[in-house]
Amino acid sequence: MTQALINGLVLGANYALMALGLTLIFALMGVLNFAHGQLYVLGGFVTYYVFTVMGLPFVVAVLASIVVLAIVGFLFDALFFRRVQQRSAREESSMLLAAGLALLLESLILLGFGEKQRGVALSVSGVYQIFDAYVPASRVVVFVVAMLAVVLFILFMRHTKPGRVLRAIAQDRDVTALQGVNIALYSGVGFAIGSALAGLAGSLLVTIFAVNSGMGTAISIKAFIMVMLGGAGIVSGAIVGAFVLGMVEALGYAFLPGSVTYLVIFVGLILFLVIRPNGIMGKPWG
Amino acid sequence: MRISGMLLAAALGVTSSLMSLGAHAEDKVLKIGQLGVMSGPSASWGLVSRYSAEALAGMINDEGGLSIGDDKYKIEIVSVDDKLDIRAAIAGIERLAYQDKVKYVIGPNVDDPSVAILPVLEAAGVFNISYGFTKELFMEPNKNTALGMIATYQTAPVVYKWLADNKGVKTVSFVSWNGVGGKANLDSGLDAAKKVGLEVLSSDAVYELGTTDFFPVMGGVVKANPDLIVLSGVSPAEAPLLIRAARELGYQGLMSTETAQDAKVLEEVAGSLANGFISLGGASSPELQSEYMAKFRDRYVQVAGEWNDEAGTKVYALYMLLKTIEAAGPKAVDDIEAFKASLPQFETANPFIKDQSVKLRWVGNSWFGQPRQISVPMVINEYRDGGFQTLFVTSVE
Amino acid sequence: MIRSNQVWAFLILALVYIVGVPFIVESRYILGILASAAGLSIIALGAWLTLAIGRVNLGQGAFALVGGYVVAIATTRWGVSFWLAIVVAGFISAAVGVVLGLGILRLRGVYFAMITLSFTEAVRLALLNGGEFTGGAGGISRIPVPGELSLLGVTIIPAFNSVNTHVASFVLSGVLLALAVLLCWRISACRIGGVFVSMQQSEELAQSVGVNITHLRIVAFGIGSFLGGIGGGYFAAAQQSVYPGGFGVPDSVSLVLYCFLGGIGYVAGPVVGTFLLFLGFQFLQDFQQYQMLAYSLLMVALMIWLPNGVLSLSEAGWIRRYRSQHGQAGAHHAG
After folding, report:
1. Is A225 part of a structural domain of the chain?
2. Which of A36-40, A79-83, B150-154, C188-192 has the lowest mean pLDDT?
3. Which residue of B77, B80, B280, C284 is most buried, as measured by CB atoms within 10 A?
4. What is the pLDDT of residues A149-177, one digit of tens each?
């Protein structure tokens, strides 16, 4: 039981990192980014490449992932989303565009990084024992870094000018535009930050989960669950959703046979959203 | 309502029929199909098949091609991605059979598509090498499918017996994935454990393909502290994660699987935690491989960019198909009946291993009632510090 | 309104396709993928109906699964004729859709999309864990090909195994698709269709005109689910097997993509989109390892170039000029 609870907690922190970028892009652009999982995977592969193949320090690898993904995110917005959003009759088009981009990114990753499972073995070894539960040191490191990243992100959104502008855009795009804010630029920045968060998640979690070119869709679906659970477009909601999912998953695997856990999660999510569509933290952004 | 859409659809139909008329096989080219999953999370299964076939075909073509009767044939590999999807697998085999006029196919990699394409194989007269383990695939009334590697139900008894005799293993727990292949592997593992007299502590730990965190799955298994944890039919992608989870949860005992793994992946993902992990290997470990295998290895690296240990097993499919066609004569090029008739008596040297006393044959009589399996040597490996060490070598029959 | 000459044109075209193609096309492979494209089009039409009421429906894969399993279980276990089973499959899917719809149809946008996506996963996992009843991970195989359908001793449809099965499957898929198109066409052309269009713009407005939209939404979603079930039932018989993974989230997303890329403003949109992309993917096979890349590039390019679908080309200037010269009405949405 202790083990299941601790697993849930650690899992939740990792999941929170996965969900943040998704919820940010949704809040800013109204785009449910189906390519989120693939961005995560790309982040993992960049870290793998820089750390394992090029032999540079892990910190450099993480930074490389963040930078590469930020650029990819900015280009996604500038080249694709902005155009489709301007010209399409239906706003859902952007969601489908993201699904198309997910496929594109996935095939590029497969061609570029190959079909093998890739992992990064950190030189952090050892296992801590808390009561009768085991927690490997590598997970503690990732847990701490993940929590740090989440806190930094929240501080950025609260206390910096770009952060405040992004929040204003999320709250009311048109009013913010009237105040002379360069919306196009800031959408690009928002997309870049969202993607960089996905890349950071992939970069850190590759040390625990490893990556392969085809796992993006599964990651996206998990991130969707967390975001919907917490309330779409709400940062605190995504974090709460992540911990709820982590807990339910860990407890489910401990007490239910195999894939019944996820059946319960999906049915539960449907029922929950029918009753409370705005999620747990269902209040406006900010 | 616009009817232009309908017109477009009709036009597509016409175009496609013209395309089908345009496809001609060139002279003196022997096309071998390859059908497998080459995208998505399990892409490595099909891609290794494909790279192996392309590498070996390249080597044979460089040597002037394959002699069948009086003619020399260049080998061409035609690959189709089945995406692990039944609709795509059926469309793929129909494409290979009716469009490319292929008679011999390597793949699919798993059970569901292998079962789903059986009617097409029968109707089109196509022979395939499957990597699904379902016994019925290779038994009457199916005659057009052979097993390209060694199945769990064949490896498990051998491995467990060896572990019981040499490592004093008495208790075992199983971890398997939720799918046809996983369930079948688990059942045959349980069977084998019973035969060898091992006590099964648990077998209900099941995970979904694509799971990333194995702590929850492994928790219960490790708690019972068995002498051996069997990762039933585990894929190369998931094996190191499972091993790592078990070790980090404090497990000290032995771990094994009956499927082929990749040393590089184990090293990168699990590192030294994977030391002592027992798995099935091809003939690629240095102490076994012949010069020809070393050459193949180089060629494979040229094709795929990086060696994969699974290729040591997968290379046999194309080799056996070609050598058997060669022996059966020109008739077998277009007619699988001639090919099938020659299966029982066919025998050739195994060029991939040093030991020349063991011949390559079509085996499986005692398992399937007909010779529908390639006699890939059963090499049991132990992982240690980035490479495999051979524990022992045996054969299916 | 639908003019009768349009109906005749459609029927003739459908007939030419259903009867003509098997004569011209000898390749079983081509027949097979055309039949699959038609089957998927039926399911995509269901997704289109939900799009018509302003909802992105990512649950269509689940309804196809339900339909497929109904046909599989009814024909293999209870010996029910395929012809009865596929109709039952459609209605069971519709019933499931109505029950689900009662709960979720008041939600919109991303919420509706996510709930239906969850539904696709939930159905797949339920079938995976269904034990003996659903056959678990192995699904149900050895589904018989459709048998003879006779009325008062007269054979209306011959047993599929007594004729060329490939041609029979092709014809069946073609006929089902033609019926599905007629159904959706009829719906979009009558008064409800007009309400649908206004609902896409503003549900409040539609409500204020005195339309019971709650009721209409349920009807549209139910019919969409019905088509999903029919399509799934068709695939069960055509492939003679069903598996939990037969339709999943990627399929559900693809089906909606087909609608968008074909053009959601047109009844023919989903059909055009499905044929174009599904067949396109098959023909890109020659790109080998670059197949998926080429396919996704094509898809993204189409979206950027024609965000309102391939059929929105018909509203391009030159076609409109042609129409006005020939005295036809300009482009109008969904009939």
Report:
1. no
2. C188-192
3. B80
4. 888 988 998 899 989 998 888 888 888 88
Instruction: Take residue C312 and report the two structure tokens written for it.
Output: 């929105």
| C-alpha span between B327 and B335 (Å, rounded) | 14
- The closest alpha carbon to B384, from B232, B261, B282, belongs to B261
CB contact (8 A) between residue A119 and residue B268: yes
Whether residue B311 contacts residue B326, with contact meaning beta carbons closer than 8 Å, is answered with no
Number of domains in chain C: 1
Instruction: Please indicate, yes or no, if residue C321 is contained in any of the structural domains.
Output: no
Is A213 an 8 Å CB contact of chain B?
yes
Q: Find out whether the peptide bond into B108 is cis, omega within 30 degrees of 0.
A: yes
Q: What is the Cα–Cα distance from C109 to A84, expressed in whole angstroms? A: 17
Q: Which residues of B177-200 are buried (b: 16+ CB within 10 A; e: fewer)?
A: bbbbbbbbbbbbbbebbeebebee
Q: Are B230 and B174 in contact (CB under 8 A)?
A: yes
pLDDT given for residue C210 in this prediction: 64
Instruction: Domain B152-285+380-394: give its CATH architecture.
Output: 3-Layer(aba) Sandwich (3.40)
- Answer whether B268's CB lies under 8 Å from A118's CB: yes
Structure tokens at A209: 């989960």
Residue of B41, C125, C248, C66 lying closest to A258 (CA atoms): C125
Locate tokens 């009865």: which residue? Answer: C84
Residue C272 lies in a domain: no
Interface of C with A (CB under 8 A): 56, 103-104, 107, 109-111, 113-115, 117-119, 121-122, 125-126, 128-129, 200, 249-250, 253, 256-257, 260, 264-265, 289-290, 292-293, 295-297, 299-300, 303-304, 307-308
Q: How many domains does chain A have?
A: 1
Predicted local distance difference test score (pLDDT) of residue C235 = 96
Report yes or no on A229 lying in a domain.
no
* Residue A3 in contact with partner chain B when CB distance is under 8 A: yes
Q: What residues does each domain of chain B span?
A: 27-149+289-376, 152-285+380-394
Contact C123, C258 (CB under 8 A): no
User: Measured between alpha carbons, how far is residue C331 from residues C9, C43, C309, C334 in Å?
Assistant: 18, 26, 14, 9
Provide the token pair at B116. Answer: 């789903």
Query: What pTM value is reported for the model?
Result: 0.90
Looking at the complex, does the CB of residue A142 fall below 8 Å from at least one CB of chain B?
no
Chain C residue numbers touching B79 (CB-CB < 8 A): 288-289
Structural domain boundaries, residue C121: 4-248
- The answer to whether the beta carbons of residues B262 and B22 sit under 8 Å apart is no
SS3 B373: strand
Q: Pick left, alpha or beta for residue B89 (phi over 0 → left; psi -120 to 50 → alpha; otherwise beta).
A: alpha
Confidence of residue C83 (pLDDT cuts 50, 70, 90): very high
Inside any domain, residue C278: no
How do residues A86-137 score in pLDDT, each as one tens digit? 887 777 888 889 999 999 999 999 999 988 889 887 766 677 877 777 788 8
A69, A198 contact by CB (below 8 A): yes
Rounded mean pLDDT, B210-226: 84
Residue pair A263/A271 in contact by the 8 Å Cβ criterion: no
CATH 3.30.300.30 fits B27-149+289-376, yes or no: no
Q: For chains A and B, count residue pairs whose Cβ atoms are closer than 8 Å.
A: 113
Residue of B47, B186, B212 to mutate when probing chain A, most A C-beta within 10 A: B212
Using 50, 70 and 90 to split pLDDT, how confident is the model at C322?
Answer: low
* Parent domain of A81: 2-214
Please report whether residue C204 resides in a domain.
yes
Tell me: the pLDDT tens digits for A220-242? 999 999 999 988 888 888 899 99
Which of C45, C95, C54 has its CA nearest to residue C216?
A: C54
Can you name the residues that pair with A151 across neighbouring β-strands? none
Residues of chain C contacting residue B13, judged by C-beta atoms under 8 Å apart: 17, 21, 24-25, 30, 34
